[in-house]
Amino acid sequence: MKRDAALRLLAKSVRTDDIVVAVYQTLFDWLEICPRDLNYVATGAMGQGSSHGLGLALANPERRVLVFDGDGSLLMNLGSLATVAGAAPCNLFHFVFANGTYEVNGSHPIPAADRIDFAAMALAAGYSTAEKWDSIDALNSGVQSFLGNPGPAFAELTVEPGRPYRRDYSYIHSYKARDAFRRALNAS
């Protein structure tokens, strides 16, 4: 499935008070598809999306936290699966957009891309549930049930790039982005 089609579908399920932590190319796509102040965009360090999402979920137990991770990014911090499972936040939903490459870093292939099963790793680490979706129809039919279960929950989405979205690094590293998020988080 196209990543941007998956994100447009997921945008329909995002509640006003949900926190969305997206990383790298998924972040750039998400910012154009679903611009909102509760998009946490300060995840410039590769592999840190799941860790930032965990901290936000623990600090905000009344809100759902959706992490939109990349497969290359998660590989940089596989230990976070065990950390998330050990903390067991029921409000954390971890989506991995798997395309087999480090896309924003030159589309170099990730190691063992044809053999990695991230959903199985999440279950083995102790996540409460894990799903795998490789089509927009499968995602559409499963996402509401997935988000209705307690977390930590994991979903692996097999994707390919959609249309190219602008990579605005200056915005994601800006004070403006962090200040808008902080104000939105503290407003309720």
Topology summary:
Layout lengths: L2 H9 L7 E4 L1 H10 L5 E2 L8 H11 L5 E6 H5 L3 H9 L4 E7 L2 E2 L5 E2 L8 H8 L3 E5 L2 H13 L4 E6 L10 H4 L2 H13 L1
Parallel strand pairs: 1-2, 1-3, 3-4, 4-8, 7-8
Antiparallel strand pairs: 5-6
Helix pairs in contact: 1-2, 1-7, 3-5
End-to-end distance? 35 Å
Strand content: 15-25%
Mean pLDDT across every amino acid position:
89
H/E element order: HEHEHEHHEEEHEHEHH
Number of helix segments? 9
Number of strands: 8
Query: Could you give the order of strands across the largest sheet?
Result: 2-1-3-4-8-7
CATH fold-level topology: Rossmann fold
Q: Decide which structural class fits the backbone.
A: alpha/beta
Summarize the structure in words.
- It is built from 9 helices and 8 strands.
- The strands form 2 sheets. A 6-stranded parallel β-sheet has the order 2-1-3-4-8-7, with helices on both faces. It has a two-stranded antiparallel sheet with strand order 5-6.
- α7 links the parallel β7 and β8.
- The radius of gyration is 15 Å and the shape is globular.
- The model has no long low-confidence stretch (mean pLDDT 89).
Highlighted features:
Rossmann fold; 6-stranded parallel sheet; alpha/beta; 188 residues
Question: Nutshell version of this structure?
Answer:
The protein is α/β, with parallel strands linked by helices and 188 residues long.
